[in-house]
Automatic annotation (TrEMBL):
This is Haloacid dehalogenase-like hydrolase domain-containing protein 2. It comes from the Eukaryota. Keywords: Magnesium, Metal-binding, Signal. Its cofactor is Mg(2+).
Length: 348
């Protein structure tokens, strides 16, 4: 009974509202108020007609609510359906990519709880790979450092931007001038470097002097391709933030009016290459890192989920520097692992 009465009232309101909408303009002209008359005018000329019109418009606004509300509900329902279908398109998690510097460790100090969190992650049915933009250390040195810090990993699980650079040099069959630290040279062993016809630039604090950069500049002017390990603006050291290779790469680009080929994060090709031997698509992977642009933004551009940790180079507000924002921003690597174990393993 109550439902029938409610339905009748709703029908009457809808009908009245429709009539009001259809006849409002005609009514306005009959009482001498054109459609151009704004509500704001009533305060200046509060005549009887204005007050009547104001009343009618107020009633109309109230009566419109039943018309508007279902539309809002429909939009909300569509949004929910949309997000559910997005979840449906994301497949079960198969792989976790983990940044090293700033995420698992800062120089020779591990992030608190990171070793134990990695051990917990390894209990889950997901592959783990360590992806790093390091340019100063070869893969072996990185591996030994992490083992000293008691992290459970294998050397072949590390994929670095140096490896990506070497792959590109071999594909192009060029002879590089290597502007990298001596400790990184091991990863380029066997490549022909005499009479260089390409420039590879990483972070090389001991080699970034005028003579070395000028040699690179002249080679590039002569047509040598400029290959950047990555273009990070800065990174985190024990004594604070420090310049990354980005400013030096950009300096050579500016001087020679060329664009570098970047091989490390955040390049999509880097993430796809890291996933290749895991037999895993980007939609089945998540990346954890302390660099909003290079780790999280890059991974998400490649189709992965990205988790930003507030350790290492993280600065307040970094999560707002990328669009879309990170899937999750959390205090540290152990918290990221908790999120994966609790929320991502079951998604299908
Ligand atoms: Mg990092």
């Amino acid at each position: 009974m109550a439902f029938t009465l409610y339905a009748l009232i709703q029908t009457a309101i809808l009908f009245t509202n429709a009539i009001a909408v259809l006849h409002e303009e005609r009514f306005l002209s009959k009482i001498g108020w054109g459609a151009e008359q704004s509500i704001g005018g009533f305060g200046d000329e509060p005549g009887i007609k204005a007050q009547l019109l104001n009343l009618i418009r107020s009633v109309r606004t109230v009566m419109r609510v039943p018309l508007i509300a279902p539309n809002v509900r429909l939009r909300q329902r569509r949004t929910l359906v949309g997000s559910k279908s997005m979840m449906a398109s994301r497949r079960a998690l198969k792989a976790v990519l983990i940044d090293l510097s700033g995420t698992l460790h800062i120089e020779d100090a591990a992030v608190p709880g990171a070793q134990e969190a990695l051990a917990r992650l390894r209990q889950a049915p997901v592959a783990v790979k360590f992806v790093t933009n390091t340019t100063k250390e070869c893969k072996r040195t990185l591996f030994e450092r992490l083992r000293r810090l008691n992290f459970d990993l294998q050397e072949q699980e590390i994929f670095t931007s140096l490896t990506a650079a070497r792959n590109l040099l071999e594909q192009r069959a060029v002879r590089p001038l290597l502007l990298v630290e001596d400790s990184a040279l091991e990863d380029f062993t066997g490549l022909e470097t005499s009479d260089p016809n390409a420039v590879v630039i990483g972070l090389a604090p001991d080699h970034f002097n005028y003579q070395a950069l000028n040699k690179a500049f002249r080679l590039i002017l002569d047509g040598a391709p400029l290959i950047a390990i990555h273009k990070a603006r800065y990174y985190k050291r024990k004594d604070g933030l420090a310049l990354g290779p980005g400013p030096f790469v950009t300096g050579l680009e500016y001087a020679t009016d060329t664009k570098a080929t970047v091989v490390g994060k955040p390049e999509k090709a880097f993430f796809l290459e890291a996933l290749r031997d895991l037999n895993c698509s980007p939609e089945e992977a998540v990346m954890i890192g302390d660099d909003a642009r290079d780790d999280v933004g890059g991974a998400q551009n490649a189709g992965m989920l990205g988790i930003l940790v507030k350790t290492g180079k993280y600065r307040p507000g970094d999560e707002g520097k990328i669009n879309p924002p990170p899937h999750l921003t959390c205090d540290s690597f152990p918290e990221a692992v908790n999120h994966i174990l609790e929320h991502l393993l079951g998604s299908k």
